[in-house]
Write a structure and sequence with these properties.
This protein is an alpha+beta fold and 102 residues long. It has one domain. The chain contains 2 helices and 6 strands. The chain has a 3-stranded antiparallel β-sheet with strand order 1-2-3. A 3-stranded antiparallel β-sheet has the order 4-5-6. The longest helix has 11 residues. The protein is globular and about 40 Å long.
């Protein structure tokens, strides 16, 4: 298991954007182990962005799953995250609750 410092360094190294203009994509590392390319999603259009986050992903490296729960209104977007699969997260990832039915 990584230390908190190793995790933070690896996460920073593996988080990136690619493309230009409306083709920009976010490359999100695994929120549990910071493995690269956990979830790659477009920033535009918003519907595709929201769908990718809501569908979530499962890490090929640590086997943990994650998804976002989005509440979009006319004036705001609220986001919460939940773990959907896999072992309990490392202690430094204590902000992601486990899904009730996982």
């Amino acid at each position: 298991m990584l230390t908190k410092e190793e995790y933070e360094k690896r996460y920073a190294e593996n988080q990136r954007l690619s493309g230009h203009g409306p083709e920009v994509k976010t490359h999100l590392p695994c929120p549990f182990c910071a493995a690269p390319e956990f979830l790659v999603y477009p920033l535009w259009p918003p519907d595709e962005h929201y769908k990718a986050l809501s569908d979530g992903a499962v890490c090929k490296e640590c086997g943990r799953g994650w998804r976002a729960i989005l509440k979009v209104t006319e004036n705001s977007t609220a986001v919460t995250f939940e773990q959907t699969k896999g072992d309990d997260p490392p202690p430094y990832v204590n902000y992601i609750p486990r899904a009730v039915n996982s």
